[in-house]
Amino acid sequence: MIEIILKIVICQFVFLLIYETLLKRETFFQWNRFYLLATTVLSILIPFLKINWFRKSISENVSTTINEIVLYASAGKKENGIQMIAEESSNFSFSIEHFYLIGCMVFAILFFRKLYHLDQLKQKSRKIVFPEFVEYRIPNSTSAFSFMNCFFIGENVKNDSYSSILNHELIHIKQKHSFDLLFFELLRIFLWFNPLIYLYQKYSAEIHEFIADQNIDKSKNYETLLQEIFGTENFSFTNSFSSKSLLQKRIIMLNKKSKKMAKLKFLVALPFLAVMLLFASSNQVQAQDLNSMNDEEMKQFIYDEFRLKSSKGESAYEQLSRLIDKEKSSEDEIQSKETYYKFMMLMRLMAEESIEKGIIKESEFPNLTKTGRTYDEYVKWKKQEIENNKKSESIKTIQYLVPADVLNEETIPFVEVDQVPLFENCEKDKTKECFQNELQNHIKQNFHYPEEAIKKNISGKVFVNFIIKKDGAIAIKAIRAPDEILEKCVYELMMKTPTLKPAVHQRKAVNMSMSIPITFKLDDKEDAKKK
């Protein structure tokens, strides 16, 4: 979202810079009006455009893995606990999204407040209906302005000025200038933080006055009339006849006429438009030689790439799932530096997103966003782990007999199905997040750290691969565990999963495969006993 907003601001800045330097002083007012409206719309659309021939196509595989679940036990206690990464927090957490929505609400209230005051002004004014417009005579006022098909004029305005003012405001009414200003007023609600929107509205209001001045029959005393003092109402979406800030500009423009060749200046915007399309459509960072970077530079470069994808709608969790499937490696394999830091930066980004969404609190997990060991430290640790694994025969992968009807049918990975299986509590919220939360809640309610495992100081990571069948039942494919006690615990835990509504893909029920990494963890006291 931040990247999209930044692109909108950059586009508007470039377009306004062209207007300010080349077009603002020309008398092609209708062209300028169209330019301001068109470039405003373009600046909002460009960040969302995806032009295929500007982009590098990357084929990415899908993954079947969801968030890791950590199960823990306290030393010397019979109670067991569970910690689930990305478990939803019931406590409200203020985020930048909330700040943005509050801003939108404030500016929406201000907008409707202006409409209310305008309506109040109508109520107290004397109404006169004409075929082309409705006139409102404001008591004890010298104001003169128009809005939509309504012409407001103070009763204290001199009669000899009435005709010129009316003709001027009728141009605004006939050319629908109020719609332009209302458009910018609505944009101010949703882009209230962007100062360039206010400039767009200001320039549009100027253009409207120049157009009206240009299109009426100007009498000799029209310039004198402009210089008379009229009252103004505080409505940013109305066309006011008299504006002190515009007075000098309007008089200058009354006596100026641009050469036809000056229209060629509008062509200057075209190459800038092409550059901005390239800028917005390219979602790939320029390839760099990662091997030439030091560790910190590589981590930052990789993090920025993932952050960019996240801002375009692909969450860190989705990116991590794809990376896990793409970078499949054995337990006894040392990852490359690039792959290692990719996993590290995605875990960091996933933690940051969870904090931003209020799923978890940073105060409860202060180390979540901190990066881990360096690559050299990782290699040293991994070599030691591989050596330990060779000495140990405890880590086993237990294969389970999957029903033939499941093996003979297509199985769709978790991240690919159109609709994930549904727990009873997910009937209304049919999202993957709800599915994951309910699965974690099921484990939380049914988990007990095996007493025998606590006594024997057994801990470690268990990988369970399973299928949720078309009838909603669970079928275990394989469990990889460091000990049979933990393998049996996970098997029993998963088989207690209630029958779900099956996954749906292309409008039909399908078998869905997925896997979960589950870590059994003893507290520090238990770890100390092991040592």
Topology at a glance:
Blueprint: H1 2-23, H2 29-45, E1 69-73, E2 80-84, H3 96-124, E3 126-129, E4 134-138, E5 144-147, E6 150-154, H4 159-174, H5 177-190, H6 195-215, H7 222-226, E7 239-240, H8 247-254, H9 269-281, H10 295-311, H11 316-326, H12 337-356, H13 375-391, E8 396-399, H14 404-407, E9 411-413, H15 432-446, H16 451-455, E10 460-468, E11 474-481, H17 484-495, E12 503-505, E13 508-522, H18 524-530
Parallel strand pairs: 1-13, 4-6, 9-13
Antiparallel strand pairs: 1-2, 3-4, 5-6, 5-7, 8-11, 10-11, 10-13, 12-13
Helix pairs in contact: 1-2, 1-6, 1-9, 2-6, 3-5, 4-6, 5-6, 10-12, 11-12
Overview of this protein structure:
With 531 residues, this protein is an alpha+beta fold. It folds into 3 domains: 1-51 and 96-283, no CATH class; 295-394, no CATH class; 404-520, 2-Layer Sandwich (Fusion Protein Consisting Of Minor Coat Protein, Glycine Rich Linker, Tola, And A His Tag, Chain: A, Domain 2), CATH 3.30.1150. The protein is 48% helix and 14% strand. The chain is built from 18 helices and 13 strands. It has helices at 2-23, 29-45, 96-124, 159-174, 177-190, 195-215, 222-226, 247-254, 269-281, 295-311, 316-326, 337-356, 375-391, 404-407, 432-446, 451-455, 484-495, 524-530; strands at residues 69-73, 80-84, 126-129, 134-138, 144-147, 150-154, 239-240, 396-399, 411-413, 460-468, 474-481, 503-505, 508-522. The strands form 2 sheets. Strands 1, 2, 8, 9, 10, 11, 12 and 13 form an 8-stranded mixed sheet that branches. It has a 5-stranded mixed sheet with strand order 3-4-6-5-7, sandwiched between helices. Helix 1 (2-23) runs antiparallel to helix 2 (29-45), helix 3 runs antiparallel to helix 5 (177-190) and helix 10 (295-311) crosses helix 12 (337-356). The protein is elongated, with a radius of gyration of 33 Å. The protein starts with a helix and ends with a helix. The model is unreliable at 51-65, 75-93, 283-288 and 525-531 (pLDDT under 50).
